[in-house]
TrEMBL record:
<dbReference type="InterPro" id="IPR036915">
    <property type="entry name" value="Cyclin-like_sf"/>
</dbReference>
<protein>
    <recommendedName>
        <fullName>Cyclin-Q</fullName>
    </recommendedName>
</protein>
<dbReference type="InterPro" id="IPR006671">
    <property type="entry name" value="Cyclin_N"/>
</dbReference>
<dbReference type="InterPro" id="IPR048055">
    <property type="entry name" value="Cyclin-Q_first_cyclin_box"/>
</dbReference>
<dbReference type="GO" id="GO:0006357">
    <property type="term" value="P:regulation of transcription by RNA polymerase II"/>
</dbReference>
<feature type="domain" description="Cyclin-like">
    <location>
        <begin position="54"/>
        <end position="154"/>
    </location>
</feature>
<comment type="similarity">
    <text>Belongs to the cyclin family. Cyclin-like FAM58 subfamily.</text>
</comment>
<dbReference type="Pfam" id="PF00134">
    <property type="entry name" value="Cyclin_N"/>
</dbReference>
<dbReference type="GO" id="GO:0016538">
    <property type="term" value="F:cyclin-dependent protein serine/threonine kinase regulator activity"/>
</dbReference>
<dbReference type="InterPro" id="IPR013763">
    <property type="entry name" value="Cyclin-like_dom"/>
</dbReference>
<dbReference type="InterPro" id="IPR048053">
    <property type="entry name" value="Cyclin-Q_second_cyclin_box"/>
</dbReference>
<keyword id="KW-0195">Cyclin</keyword>
<dbReference type="InterPro" id="IPR043198">
    <property type="entry name" value="Cyclin/Ssn8"/>
</dbReference>
Amino acid sequence: MNILEPINNTTEILSSKMKDVIDVMAMQREMRSTLQKSITIDYKNFNDDFTVARFIFECGIKLEANPLTISTAATLYHRFIREINPQNYDLYLIASTCLYLAGKIKDDNKLIKIRDIMNVSSNTLHRGSQPMELGDQYWSVRDAIIQAELLIIRTLKFEVTPDHPHRYMVHYLRSLQAWFGDDEWSKYPVAKTSMALLQDFHHSSAVLDYPPNIIAIACINLTLQIYGVVVPLMDECDQFPWFNVLCKDLTREKLWEVMEKIMSSYDQEPETRDSC
């Protein structure tokens, strides 16, 4: 009996199972990219985790925050929501506060001012609204964010500095680039797509369920599957796949489980959107 046969069979089953899903996901991403500029979400009509996380991303982009700062804010939000009853809180206030707190944590030489967060959050929730004037409403919202910041920190037991998959991904991508060679590597947008998948995965609370290094590998491997790219010299080494060089204990089954979670996170987006 060929000892590699069970491994090969598992790979074939998983590949067959995921092929159609990967193709559909790639098409959905292209369509979403095309429509993104013309679709505006009316956040007041939605209160699910995916949409609130998207609110964080939209506000973060408007504030020109570092991508890692935005991911930190999303991670803090998902962690906080798991600890409380969401019905007892204004989730968009919590989201704005997470963005404010993340700006302090990452401190990427551009501290996000609380007034900027207040104005951007207000304008994103109430499209076309004017910046807040110094008055009762301004000081009320400002005080609410400060109080919410203290609540989040206490709820998370002062553990507000997450171990991000991003740093693992940068290391892994550099290793793969050297593995491929510059000419072959430049043919496919592996780094760009992997990072995009990682950022998108932060819309889902499932990003908390797996070690950051495995999430990074899953995003990269999903990208390789999408573009049909084979890591050099690995086609003859099925018993020792490329990702075991980076994480020796990672199994194929666990890797595909995380990849499925990444893809299923796109299904969490509500289908109905209000457009302008």
